[in-house]
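anyone seen this seq b4? input:
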Amino acid sequence: MGFVEDLGLQTTRTEGGAEVRLEVTEAVLNGLGLVHGGVICSLVDHAIGAAVIFALGHGGRAVTAELKINFLAPAERGVLVARGRLLREGQRLLVGEAEVIDQSGRLIAKALGTWAVVRKAL
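predicted toks r here
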């Protein structure tokens, strides 16, 4: 089982991007009882990354080259949703953004990232 499956991320293709849902469990909470910041980073990384792969199409491969995140509010139990979309699609680099909201619609985090297209076998 892979990392995405271990976290329980559910990914859906959307018009112009991707939506990723996370049902918050005890396993993703930090010592304060809030969602760990690394989990939120993983959520936005996967949301933008999925938007990138959907844009590249069948056989397309890319890796995260840079990711910046602003944590705007603490995330608690419930459902978190990350929506990723592309801002720019070049031959070698793609730039995307994502936001994370909780089940009440509160903005939890915003992220901006760059993905590098992989043309050779890793």
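The mean pLDDT is 94. The beta strands are 10-14, 17-23, 62-71, 79-89, 93-102, 107-117. kinda curious what u guys think
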